[in-house]
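Please check what follows.
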Amino acid sequence: MNFLSTLLLGILIGWLIEWIIDWLYWRKKLAQELKNKAQELASAQNTIATLEKENKTAQEKLRTLETENNAKLKTAQEKINQLEAQKKAAEKTAQDQLNALQVEKLSAQRAAEEKIEALESELKNCSQARIDPLEKIKGIGPVIKTKLYASGITSFKQLGNLTPAQLEEIVGDEIKRLADEDEIIRQAQEFAENA
């Protein structure tokens, strides 16, 4: 039994020594690794918490920017709608004014044509009246001729007897743009003498 006791005692002592070594060396090492891992985990959790706070702040900022952007977009759209309405109103007003001017122009042309026709028929009936081709004078075109006829000036002699001021009063400001009043009167006097 000695042998068996010694063997058993040796196994027990060996196991005890292994346990002590394990406890002192390996478990401390594992405990240190566990502690390091716990610190890494805590650090990672802190990083995650910080990132979550930053994410929350970023989301709030994004919501604020979206709200501001939507408000600006809505304001801009309202302004565009107002401008489009103003444009349509202005176009309608301009078109109405243009139509009114066209009607007025047509009425004035008809009235002038009727007056010219009346004067021409009246002059044809008069034995003393004379109708000269006033457009032979340089500077007199259809517009000025029509105005002269409408005012009763139908001959070179009548035109030659006018003053530049009277001619301008009959024809209007167009005479300054289109011809020289003195030159028109001089030519009319020459045609009247040669007629």
Observations:
- The first helix runs from residue 2 to 125.
- The domain at 130-194 is CATH 1.10.150.20 (DNA polymerase; domain 1).
- The helical segments are 2-125, 142-150, 156-160, 164-171, 174-178, 181-194.
